[in-house]
Write a structure and sequence with these properties.
heterodimer; A: mainly alpha; MetI-like fold; flat; B: alpha/beta; 19 helices; 11 strands; 50% helix
């Protein structure tokens, strides 16, 4: 584009040379044209960047901002999926009822516990794997690709396989546990086993992804740091704790933030893990997450107004979580 | 000069690209249903293309009905799209109906949803009473798709008259009779007797249960009631209706006594219990035979038989509706009526096991002589026809499915996991009330 601008800017000078072909183009005409071109160019410079970034913002407007605002509007009404245009104003009733909606708070609690059960081991394991991969290994590319493979599989396919693995009576995991003398565990119906099972799908899918991010960050740590640490007599472990971890701090923060967002939006895994194939997250809602509850209210029970209020409440909770994250990260940065 | 034209041209190209991208985006958001039918009717060489939106295994195509109709009407070309599960199909259908876009010319609706469609979407659907012949269909089936002001917005494809399928070998081993008449007499007229037979069975059952699941039993009992979840004025009464409570308690009782398997129906683990012959009987509409056949091992062939249920009921069945927004509503309505006429339904039963909603078909050879691999020589057509005639006219409501599902998945299933009947009922009621509350 820059060459285009250059020639456009230079062209008025050449214009005189081209003039003889059209003698009628007198100097005043030429001047007007020059002025017009220069105006055009100024406009181009001023507005083109906006045009170039506009596709994203138009899309965001259509598929991000508009739904957000419309959902907010719908959340103040009683609306059913069977007649989405037929809205009855109910004010903040959809929000106030959330305060004593046991199912909402149950889902919120589940989202939190599943989030913790899935995120903490996931990041610890990712760190360990990244550390191992950071050594000189034969076939390291193979290991890296293999680690990313779960991330590239579809949630649906993975969840369905996990449902089979975690089957109570015919599942492979119980079969293996039987061999070490543990009785059948009802992975889908008991509260904690089901949450652990759902978390394991998340862990399986995202550990490799996070490990690669850590690995990339580790490889950016200057070798001299390790050398001087070694000269000072630091062991491998000491090097890891005093050189690697501090250097990774921003990366760790990034993965924590991304994982938190992912955990708060958890939906596909618990939906597909349900033995009843409903959206209630198990018979007693034992692993229903907020995302799943929102879906159940909106699409299964067809209460769009209530679902919208849940969506907005989730949004507000996420903002609070985001602020807490920000404060903590600032503290961390200040302390380092 | 050349340089300038080049930049000008480049700007034109860029603008054109932006414009076409934008247009593409807009087109992406625009109605896709109509584009589609335009193209295909063009491709069909001046033919009218009629599209059907179906779920599950409707079997129209498999039994060659489309080809037959296309032969009878050379200017018609038929296409179908099938979604596997109604849980995925129905919300999309409602969405399409309310926005009047993305609809096929004919849309199938399940009996669990028909009341809601009748009550909320009838303005968007064509009145089919001029096309289908009312006297052909079972009266209650016709009424289910008829609005209060007398518009019939759907014609019935099939019904699910319920009988009891049982394993003759397991019944024999447990010392029960195996002849279908005698078995039917054991429990005729009362579900309590049915559960009592189960208790007798369970005493000698070796590693098997009498029934497959609590959900199947609850479904069977409830479907034989005239009034379940709604009263005739449309009020939700499931909580106070003694029929519902006693059905729930009886099922819970059976579950407590270990008469039912603890798997959820139509899930892989449940399929495994069929393959491994883990239960002796199940509530069994005609389409269930096809399911059993699909999941059984070869050695179970001919070991099943069918007896009448204690009380007849209906489980399943669908309707064909014609959205008014379609391009060929007239042709679509004719096709819908033809597909559900007695002759075609008889053919469908022979191939697919979907039981006709048209009594005239019950006397056809296709129904009378029907057999199934699983049930050997049993005259399944006659047995189900008998059951179909005794089905009560049931009051249905828009949220039947949610209530039924709540009572099963959030209710009786818990009893198999060791909860008390009262806790299970409370959990179910709490869930259902929350789900119904607008």
């Amino acid at each position: 584009m820059t060459t285009g601008h250059d020639t456009a800017a230079a062209s008025p000078a050449k214009e005189g040379g081209a003039a003889p072909a059209r003698p009628s183009a007198g100097p005043p005409d030429d001047e007007r044209r020059r002025a017009r071109l220069s105006r055009r160019w100024q406009r181009d410079v001023r507005w083109s960047p906006y045009a170039f970034v506009s596709p994203f913002f138009l899309l965001f407007l259509a598929f991000g901002l508009f739904p957000l605002i419309y959902t907010g509007w719908a959340s103040l009404h009683q609306v059913e999926l069977t007649a989405p245009t037929d809205m009855h104003w109910v004010g903040f009733r959809n929000y106030t009822r959330i305060f004593d909606d046991d199912f909402f708070w149950n889902a919120a609690k589940n989202t939190l516990t599943i989030g913790i059960i899935s995120t903490v081991p996931q990041l610890l394991m990712a760190m360990g794997l990244a550390h191992i991969l950071n050594y000189k290994l034969r076939g390291s590319t193979f290991y890296r690709v293999a680690m990313l493979a779960p991330y590239a599989t579809s949630i649906a396919a993975a969840s369905l396989v996990f449902v089979l693995l975690f089957g109570r009576d015919y599942g492979m995991i119980n079969w293996a546990l039987n061999h070490v003398g543990i009785d059948n565990i009802d992975w889908q119906n008991d509260k904690w086993p089901s949450q652990i099972a759902v978390s394991s799908i998340v862990i399986w899918r995202w550990t490799g992804y996070n490990a690669l991010i850590y690995l990339a960050a580790m490889q950016a740590i200057p070798q001299d740091l390790y050398e001087s640490a070694a000269l000072d007599g630091a062991s491998r472990w000491q090097q890891f704790f005093h050189v690697t971890l501090p250097s990774l701090r921003p990366t760790i923060l990034f993965t924590v933030v991304v994982s938190t967002i992912g955990a708060s939006q958890l939906f596909g895994e618990p939906l597909l893990f349900d033995a009843n194939k409903g959206a209630s997250g198990g018979s007693q809602h034992q692993f229903q997450t907020l995302g799943l509850y929102l879906y159940e209210q909106g699409w299964v029970n067809q209460h769009l107004g209530r679902a919208s209020a849940i969506a907005w409440t989730m949004f507000l909770i996420l903002i609070v979580v985001g602020i807490v994250n920000y404060v903590i990260s600032r503290r961390l940065r200040a302390s380092s | 000069m050349r340089a300038r034209t080049r930049t000008a041209r480049r700007r034109v190209v860029v603008l054109a690209a932006v414009a076409s991208l934008g247009a593409g985006l807009l087109a992406g958001c625009a109605d896709d249903g109509k584009d589609d039918s335009n193209e295909s009717s063009g491709g069909g060489g001046g033919k009218t293309t009629i599209t059907l939106g179906l779920f599950g295994t409707a079997g129209f195509k498999e039994s060659g009905l489309y080809k037959e109709y296309e032969k009878l009407h050379p200017n018609v070309h038929i296409e179908q799209t099938v979604v596997e599960r109604n849980e995925n199909y129905y919300p999309a259908l409602i969405n399409h109906l309310t926005t009047n876009s993305g609809l096929q010319d004919i849309q199938m609706v399940e009996v669990g949803n028909i009341a809601e469609v009748v009550q909320t979407q009838s303005a968007k659907l064509l009145d089919l009473s001029k096309y289908g012949k009312k006297s052909d269909y079972l009266d209650w089936k016709w009424q289910q798709a008829t609005t209060k002001d007398g518009q019939t917005i759907g014609v019935g494809t099939d019904v699910g008259p319920m009988a009891i399928c049982y394993r003759t070998d397991l019944f024999k081993a447990a010392g029960l009779p195996t002849d279908r008449e005698e078995v039917g007499k054991l429990w005729a007229g009362s579900w309590d007797k049915f559960v009592d037979v189960g208790k007798t069975y369970q005493k000698k059952a070796k590693g098997t249960t009498f029934l497959d699941s609590p959900g199947g039993l609850l479904q069977a009992i409830l479907s034989s009631e005239t009034e379940r979840f709604y009263d005739s004025s449309g009020k939700v009464i499931y909580k106070t209706n003694p029929a519902v409570k006693s059905a729930f308690d009886l099922t819970a009782d059976a579950a407590k006594a270990g008469l039912v398997g603890n798997q959820t129906q139509f899930q892989p683990a449940w399929d495994t219990t069929i393959a491994n012959s883990k239960f002796a009987a199940m509530s069994c509409p005609p389409w269930m035979l096809g399911y059993i056949k699909g999941k059984s091992k070869a050695d179970a062939k001919g070991k099943w038989d069918i007896a009448q249920a204690p009380k007849s009921g209906n489980w399943g069945g669908s309707f064909l509706t014609v959205p008014k927004s379609g391009k060929h509503t007239e042709e679509a309505a004719k096709l819908a009526a033809w597909l559900t006429a007695p002759e075609q339904q008889a053919k469908l039963f022979a191939v697919q096991g979907s039981f006709p909603s048209t009594p005239a078909a019950y006397d056809s050879d296709a129904v009378k002589n029907a057999k199934n691999d699983m049930t050997g020589s049993a005259p399944i057509g006659t047995i189900f026809a008998e059951a179909a005639k005794n089905i009560p006219v049931q009051t249905i409501g828009p949220k039947d499915q949610i209530i039924q599902q709540g009572l099963t998945d959030n209710g009786v299933v818990l009893v198999t996991q060791g909860k008390s009947a009262k806790d299970a009922w409370d959990n179910a009621v709490k869930t259902i009330d929350n789900n119904l509350d607008q």
